[in-house]
Design goal:
By secondary structure, the chain is of the alpha/beta class. It has 14 helices and 13 strands. 48% of the residues are buried.
Length: 375
C-alpha cells in the first residue's frame, strides 16, 4: 500500500486532511492551528510531495520524517500539519485491519470516558449558574469555564479577582460538592494576579487552574506554579514531547492539556501521555475543534491510563455535525468508544460547500491607556 493523494478541506474554520492510498483506502485527520489554519494547510501541502509513495503503515517513521523535515523548524503550523496527517494514517491503518484505533493502541483501559462540559458563561453569576445547571442536568459531573467577562482587560485588580471568585462561588453553590469545577484563567492574568486569585478561590476546591498566565515561558509558568496551592493545567498551545517534558519537570503540574490536532496527533499525544503517566500527571486535552479531533481523542482516552476527562463541545450542532457521518456518542456526561474501524467517523465532503471558510478574527484586548493587554 502506498500514499497516492493528500487533500485538504475547510469546513468553516475547521481544517480537514484526507489521505488516499493506491488501493482506494481513505483516512481523515484534523488540524487545530485555528488562528492561522491557512498556514497549516500550506505546510500539509509542503509535506505532500515527500509523502506520496510512502507506505502509510509506517506511522512512526512518517511522524519523525515530517517532524524533522526541512531542518526541524518548530511552530504550530508544523504541529497542526503533522497532527492532521498522523490522524489520517491511523484511520487508514484501522480501516485496513478492520479495527478501531483504540484496539491498535493496546485495547481498552476503560469502558467509557468522562466528559467535562464547556460553554459556561463568565459574563455574570446568573449566566454562569444557568449554564452550570444545564450541564449538571445533562449528566455531566465536571465543567470548565473562565470566570471573567469579555471586558476583563478593563477591570482593576480588585474587581478582576473579586468578580472571578464570586462567579466560581456561585457555580459551586449551584452544582454542589460532588462535582468538579475546572477554572480556565485563559491567560488573562499577570503572575501576581493569578497567585492572589488562587489563594482566594482555594476554599472552593477547583479541580484545576488552567493557563493562569500566557504560555510564553515554561520558567515563568513554573514560578507561578511554585506559589500556587492548587492543581495546575497547562499545554494547549504546546507541541511535541520535549515541551511537555519541561512542564512535567519544572512546573510540577497536575494536568497536561495537549491538543491532539496541534501537539502531534495520535502518535505525538500518546508519547505525551506516557510522560504524564511517569510523572503522575493527568490528561485533560484541549478540544474545541471538530468531531474528527474528538474521535482521535476518544481513541487515545480509551487506551491511555493517564487520560482523565475529555473536553466536550456541542458536536450535535452545525457546522460540526455536518462534518462527519456520525459523531462520538455522548451519554449522560460520558463518551462511549466507537466500535467502527479506524477513528469511527467518515468525512462528509458536502459540508465544505455548506460552510465556506470562515477565518478567525480575534484581536487582542486593548487597555484604557491604548496598550495591548498582554495578559
Amino acid at each position: 500500500m502506498k500514499i497516492e493523494k493528500i487533500e485538504t478541506f475547510f469546513v468553516s474554520r475547521y481544517l480537514v486532511v484526507r489521505i488516499t492510498t493506491d488501493d482506494g483506502t481513505q483516512g481523515v485527520g484534523e488540524s487545530c492551528y485555528w488562528s492561522y489554519p491557512k498556514a497549516a494547510e500550506q505546510t500539509i501541502h509542503g509535506f505532500a510531495d515527500a509523502l506520496i509513495g510512502m507506505d502509510p503503515a509506517d506511522i512512526e517513521h512518517i511522524w519523525h520524517y515530517v517532524w524533522r523535515y526541512n531542518s526541524a523548524f518548530r511552530g504550530n503550523s508544523i504541529g497542526g500539519a503533522v497532527s492532521a496527517i498522523d490522524m489520517a494514517l491511523w484511520d487508514i491503518k484501522g480501516k485496513r485491519l478492520q479495527a478501531p484505533v483504540w484496539d491498535l493502541l493496546g485495547g481498552k483501559v476503560r469502558q467509557r470516558v468522562r466528559a467535562i462540559a464547556q460553554g459556561i458563561s463568565g459574563e455574570s453569576a446568573d449566566a454562569a449558574v444557568r449554564d452550570a445547571k444545564k450541564a449538571k442536568e445533562a449528566g455531566f459531573t465536571a465543567l470548565k469555564f473562565t470566570p471573567m467577562p469579555k471586558n476583563w482587560a478593563e477591570l482593576r485588580y480588585t474587581k478582576l479577582i473579586g468578580n472571578a471568585v464570586d462567579l466560581v462561588a456561585a457555580v459551586r453553590e449551584e452544582v454542589g460538592w460532588d462535582f468538579d469545577i475546572g477554572i480556565e484563567i485563559h491567560r488573562n492574568m499577570q503572575p501576581s494576579e493569578a497567585i492572589a486569585f488562587c489563594e482566594e478561590v482555594a476554599s472552593l476546591r477547583p479541580y484545576f487552574i488552567e493557563d493562569p498566565i500566557v504560555p510564553d515561558s515554561v520558567l515563568a509558568m513554573s514560578e507561578v506554579a511554585s506559589k500556587m496551592r492548587l492543581p495546575l493545567a497547562v499545554g494547549e498551545r504546546n507541541m511535541g514531547v520535549w515541551e511537555f517534558r519541561e512542564y512535567a519537570q519544572l512546573t510540577n503540574c497536575a494536568f497536561f492539556k495537549p491538543d491532539i490536532a496541534v501537539a502531534g496527533g495520535i502518535t505525538g499525544v500518546r508519547k505525551i501521555a506516557t510522560i504524564a503517566e511517569a510523572h503522575h500527571v493527568k490528561i485533560c486535552p484541549h478540544n474545541f475543534q471538530g468531531p474528527i479531533a474528538t474521535a482521535a481523542c476518544i481513541a487515545l482516552a480509551t487506551s491511555c491510563l493517564a487520560w482523565d476527562v475529555q473536553e466536550s463541545v456541542d458536536e450535535h450542532l452545525s457546522p460540526r455535525r455536518d462534518m462527519v457521518d456520525e459523531i462520538m456518542k455522548l451519554e449522560n456526561g460520558w463518551y462511549m468508544p466507537s466500535e467502527r474501524p479506524g477513528l469511527g467517523v467518515e468525512f462528509n465532503e458536502a459540508a465544505v460547500a455548506m460552510h465556506p471558510f470562515d477565518p478567525a478574527q480575534v484581536p487582542p484586548p486593548i487597555r484604557d491607556d491604548g496598550s495591548v493587554a498582554l495578559r
